[in-house]
């Protein structure tokens, strides 16, 4: 009889443990509900409502005006450019640290810096680039006075398309490093040894073995970087103000009522941004899943 009692006693304890574990997740669930799900639902519903609260499709139809389509197109181009350059540069840096000849003691500081820099945005980032590459920035003045190079005459302006793209690279490159490093770590040494035994050169190994395995991770990270740049609001507003017609700036002005005075059109703009970022994040998750099949 004692064995039956001892055998039955752990079940309630396990049940209580399970409830307490779920209780620990409750603050996170409340946070997601209040600051993600409910605002998203308000945006989605507001995109299909008039100021009086009735159903309408006029807000979505307003997205197809010339100025709004132009804003989406410029935002997409900036996102593609910053994502592509971020992937290219970040992949080169991560490869040099993980597989190259650089000392391994560089890896920990690099990943630590990448974790901080990937979250550095908004007004501080905009101020840093204006102070560095602005009309009277440190680098701008140095190049003009010491080397005779005028960035303005060369066509570079921090408040332009390429200025915002370069600014975005400050957090795009570190994010690429953080995501691609585990994928590079997953490349097995046996694969390279087998390729060398079969007579493959280093270039052939990368072209026929390593790069096809890493391609889903690279494409998935590109999608994530695209969504990251497309949804960046604070940095774009703080850096360019209203001088560049992109969706986040147009959305900010629309919600405030500075331009057209129709917040529900702003909801439609935000709804369009949600669709674009959802597509990009879905591609990232799908590519990431395909990559993990090879790297396990």
UniProtKB/TrEMBL annotation:
PROSITE patterns: ABC_TM1. GO terms for biological process: transmembrane transport. The keyword Kinase does not apply. The keyword Cell membrane applies. Gene3D superfamilies: MetI-like (1.10.3720.10). GO terms for cellular component: plasma membrane. It comes from the Bacteria. Keywords: Cell membrane, Membrane, Transmembrane, Transmembrane helix, Transport. This is Acriflavin resistance protein. It is a multi-pass membrane protein. Belongs to the binding-protein-dependent transport system permease family. CysTW subfamily. Coiled coil: none annotated. It is found in: Cell membrane. InterPro entries: MetI-like, MetI-like_sf.
């Amino acid at each position: 009889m004692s064995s039956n009692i001892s055998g039955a006693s752990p079940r309630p304890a396990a049940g209580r443990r399970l409830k307490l574990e779920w209780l620990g997740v409750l603050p996170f669930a409340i946070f997601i509900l209040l600051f993600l799900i409910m605002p998203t639902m308000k945006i989605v519903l507001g995109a299909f409502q008039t100021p009086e609260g009735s159903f309408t499709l006029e807000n979505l139809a307003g997205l197809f005006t010339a100025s709004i389509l132009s804003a989406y197109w410029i935002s997409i181009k900036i996102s593609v450019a910053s994502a592509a350059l971020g992937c290219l540069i970040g992949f080169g840096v991560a490869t040099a640290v993980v597989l190259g000849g650089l000392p391994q003691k560089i890896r920990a500081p690099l990943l630590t810096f990448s974790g901080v820099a990937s979250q550095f945005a908004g007004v501080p980032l905009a101020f840093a680039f204006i102070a560095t590459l602005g009309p009277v920035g440190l680098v701008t003045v140095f190049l003009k006075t010491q080397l005779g190079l005028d960035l303005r005459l060369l066509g570079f302006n921090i408040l332009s398309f390429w200025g915002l793209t370069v600014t975005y690279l400050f957090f795009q490159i570190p994010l690429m490093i953080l995501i691609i490093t585990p994928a590079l770590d997953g490349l097995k040494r046996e694969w390279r040894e087998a390729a060398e035994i079969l007579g493959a050169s280093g270039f052939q190994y990368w072209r026929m073995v390593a790069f096809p395995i890493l391609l889903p991770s690279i494409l998935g990270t590109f999608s994530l970087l695209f969504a990251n740049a497309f949804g960046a609001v604070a940095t774009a507003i703080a850096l360019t103000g209203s001088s560049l017609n992109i969706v986040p700036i147009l959305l900010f002005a629309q919600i405030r009522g500075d331009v057209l005075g129709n917040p529900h059109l702003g909801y439609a703009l935000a709804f369009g941004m949600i669709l674009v970022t959802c597509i990009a994040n879905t591609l990232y998750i799908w590519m990431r899943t395909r990559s993990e099949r090879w790297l396990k």
